[in-house]
Write a structure and sequence with these properties.
It is a multi-pass membrane protein. With 284 residues, the protein is of the alpha+beta class. 36% of the residues lie in helices and 30% in strands. The chain is globular and about 65 Å long.
Length: 284
């Protein structure tokens, strides 16, 4: 068992080392482009973020407007007959709404789907109820909360697939209604929004579906309308790193190099340990 754990740690360290090294080198090697003159393809942009026209993105936990959010709620619970206490995740969500980055020369729509996001804001706190907004005692609180946000108006670093597409020219509300009608006709896709698995979609779950329909209608409009050029940054084919970051370029490079060093340490510690354990077992 210990041998298996050492092997897993070693190969996990190898993966972390290679991935982090590649990302650090990619960030260093790709020059920063200006939005107005950026070529089609893989690009690095630096600017500030703002919301798309229409409904604003609001983080459910804090109620704060933002460009992107991710949150998680854990509940303190007991495991097994021993009554050992631990944390169990009972709710989590990530926003997928589009937003805009601008750098003084132009603007680009950012689709966060599939991105690694390093937020501006990352807060953890504890509370005695699901609606707690303020901190509580770590050792007695029943719930643990974490919220991450990309804030509007703050410096933003992005690297991904840059394309110039058509902009939406049709009525957004009609588009959303069309997408929702399609969704209702597809039981399998509707089932994905039944978070509590009670066989029906309640009001909160339907709101999640409506938000998804809004994002989907915007993406369709961007692809279908040729009336005005719009720049869009996305994951592309997924072959290269797609990163949205509240940290600067230099901070990101330092972060990935530190992760790579941690991975190398795991590799150099895990694999030799596994080999030593195997040799000791066969020699016994």
């Amino acid at each position: 068992m210990w041998c298996l754990g050492a092997t897993v740690a070693g190969f996990g360290g190898l993966y972390l080392f290679l991935r982090s090294l590649i990302r650090a080198r990619t960030i260093e090697d790709v020059p920063t482009s200006r939005i107005r003159s950026a070529s089609q393809g893989y690009n690095e942009l630096i600017g500030t973020g703002r919301n798309m026209p229409g409904p604003q993105i609001v983080s459910p936990l804090s109620g704060q407007p933002c460009l992107w959010y991710r949150y998680q709620i854990d509940e303190r619970t007991s495991y097994g007959n021993s009554g050992e206490r631990g944390w169990k995740t009972i709710e989590r969500s990530t926003s997928h709404g589009l937003f805009i980055i601008e750098d003084g020369t132009g603007e680009c729509i950012v689709d966060p789907e599939g991105a690694q996001v390093i937020p501006h804001f990352d807060r953890r706190w504890y509370g005695d109820s699901m609606s707690a907004r303020n901190g509580g005692w770590t050792f007695t609180a029943q719930y643990r909360f974490r919220e991450q946000r990309i804030e509007k108006g703050y410096p933003l670093y992005v690297i991904g697939d840059f394309r110039t597409l058509g902009s939406p020219s049709c009525d957004m509300q009609d588009n959303i209604a069309d997408v929702l009608r399609e969704l209702k006709k597809d039981p399998q896709r509707m089932h994905a929004f039944d978070r509590n698995r009670d066989g029906s979609v309640d009001q909160n779950e339907w709101e999640l579906a409506r938000r998804w329909a809004e994002r989907e209608s915007r993406r369709r409009a961007l692809k279908e309308s040729p009336t005005e050029a719009r720049n869009v940054l996305s994951r592309g084919d997924g072959q290269r790193a797609y990163i949205l970051s509240g940290k600067s370029e230099s901070e990101l490079v330092a972060r990935y190099r530190a992760q790579g060093l941690a991975g190398l340490t795991m590799l150099l510690g895990g694999i030799p340990t596994a080999v030593w354990m195997l040799l000791a077992r066969f020699a016994a």
